[in-house]
Amino acid sequence: MKRLLMTSCGAILVAGCATLTGPTIDAPKLLSAQQVTAAFSGNTVRSYNRSRKLNTYTYYDPDGSVLQERFWEVRKGRWHVKPDGQICLVFERTSCRFVGWAGDRLYKYRRTTNGELKAIIRYSDFTAGNYVGL
Known about the structure:
The chain is built from 2 helices and 9 strands. It is an alpha+beta fold. It has one domain: Lipocalin, CATH 2.40.128. 18% of the residues are buried. The N terminus is likely disordered.
């Protein structure tokens, strides 16, 4: 009985500690539409594609236009934020994704076929204006 009680207490302690941690890469703290707009509008943002292992620079003009340096070429498009906080980029097609914090890092997430969020882009270096002259 004593062993069962100690095992149960240990399991409760471990489970309790697991819930004390902050957002993880798989369970982010998503940004609101207002937070996404404030973070991106008027800024050049460096992003890192986790699967392609590639950095890109994107300028999010407050007028809704976007300039992105990707694969050493600049492409032009549009951007907007949906009421649920998803940032949408429109180039050849429209792609809308959630943005959220995991620890001290900001990521872009896509929803998998089973409904889970998967981090696909890590954001860094938010700089005011069209910093890289795109």
